[in-house]
Specification:
4 helices, two-stranded antiparallel sheet, Non-ribosomal Peptide Synthetase Peptidyl Carrier Protein, Chain A, about 150 residues, 2 domains, mainly alpha, about 5% strand
């Protein structure tokens, strides 16, 4: 039966093994011509680079970074459309309907000596609801819920 090593002993043996490997590689490289040694080093560096890039691409694929990026870009564009609708349609309508004129976001109420910008709050909520409605409609119309991956 083999004895199990403690984690500390295991780390030491791994470190010793690594040192032994480095020493072997140095010995082999010293016996090669400078051109052959350069080729070996280039191959090792290229292999490590491929390994690192492969890890990065796996991270991108597994974490859904591309999907998040696309969602962010689409969300920003939808927000721009909603801002245009708010500025070109909602603000003129509210200016005509609200007493005292002014846009919805400029509406305030005074309580004592404190001014409360209730119009800006309603404006933000309305903008949020419009963005959520557009995203939900696109999700349903494009049938994206049918694309859900089975686990």
């Amino acid at each position: 039966m083999e004895k199990q090593q403690s984690p500390k002993t295991d780390k030491i043996s791994k470190a010793a093994h690594k040192r032994r490997q480095i020493k072997e590689v140095k010995t082999k490289l010293s016996n090669l011509s400078p051109t052959a040694a350069a080729e070996v080093v280039n191959d090792v560096v290229a292999g490590q680079t491929r390994k690192q890039l492969g890890g990065f691409t796996n991270f991108i694929r597994e974490q859904g970074v591309i999907g998040v990026g696309i969602g962010l870009v689409l969300g920003i564009q939808i927000k721009a459309v909603v801002d245009t609708i708010m500025a070109s349609f909602v603000n003129p309508v509210t200016t005509a309907l609200l007493p005292g004129g002014g846009t919805l976001s400029a509406q305030t109420a005074t309580v004592g000596s404190v001014k409360i910008g209730w119009g800006a709050i309603v404006y933000s909520l309305f903008t949020f609801l419009m963005v959520a409605l557009i995203i939900y409609a696109a999700y349903k119309l494009l049938r994206l819920d049918k694309l859900k991956k089975e686990k």
